[in-house]
Amino acid sequence: MATPKPERGLLQELTLHCRLWLSGVKEGFCLHRCVIYWVHDPTIWWKTVRCFTFNGVIFGGSIVIFKALLAPGFRWLVGTAVPAWASALDASLYLVYTFTWLFPVYIISFIVNCLWYQEIAERAFRVGQQRAVQSGQQAKARVLAGKPMPFPHMLAQELFRMTLFCVFFIQSLVAGCIPFIGPLANFVLLSWLYAFYFFDYKWAMTNVPLVTRVQHFEGHFAFFAGFGSVCTLATLIWPFFEGVAVMGVIFPLFVMVACEADPRLALQQCESKLLDIGPTAGSQLSGNAECSFAQAAPLSASHLCY
């Protein structure tokens, strides 16, 4: 007979979710796990270097050179030659630079990065499967045996997924305009959005239905808020284009970290610490929360909880 799940008070619920958030933050900082993937598959390393070179050196470096050298030099030259036109010419230079360089490079980087991120995620996923087989954890490796999703269903899910991301991003922008709590709401929503991005690569490769992914995400919302907050903090402290360059550099790192992160285990550990019980009982407590997820995708659940 299964052990009944004890009721938790409001204070315990708040404490549990705070611990889950901190656990997610801790997982987000485990960037050293990327070394495992680089060692097992050098191609992942070279793709990561390409992301750093294109986004950090070329894109980000061009912004630094413009703001630190070109713009001040042009401002000094114009201010010396035609002081009356200095302000207007300086603004014109920035507009020309933005529309002739930043926006085209931003669009190109978006397309190229998507291809690189996908390949990095696929290779990292395979490395995780190989490590699971080598360590004797066959259940985690069997997810690859799942039957591919029919193309019409896959297309419908991708359209729904894109719509979901767009709506969520718009919500974060609108929430940022709310007085007083706007910045905090924007930060939390972006953290959730980034976390979903990172984990969605792994979920998509296990053919988990999108609705099931969302349910799993909602069941561990505090953990994902903490996990995504690390990347959000690293990008929000910069202006838009600088933030895009930083995101392009660190995005593949978080995709690799997400392949190793285990939200279900984090929930079990937090519940065990909260109630001062053993890990077995903690697993039973978390079992009810994961039941619908496991039923919806039995082959994928083992990997998603990995």
TrEMBL record:
Chain segments annotated as transmembrane: 52-74, 94-116, 159-181, 244-261
Location in the cell: Membrane
Predominant place of localization: membrane
Keywords per UniProt: Membrane, Transmembrane, Transmembrane helix
Membrane topology: Multi-pass membrane protein
GO biological process: macroautophagy
A Pfam match: EI24
Cellular-component GO terms for this entry: endoplasmic reticulum; membrane
Name of the molecule in the record: Uncharacterized protein
Organism of provenance: Apatococcus lobatus
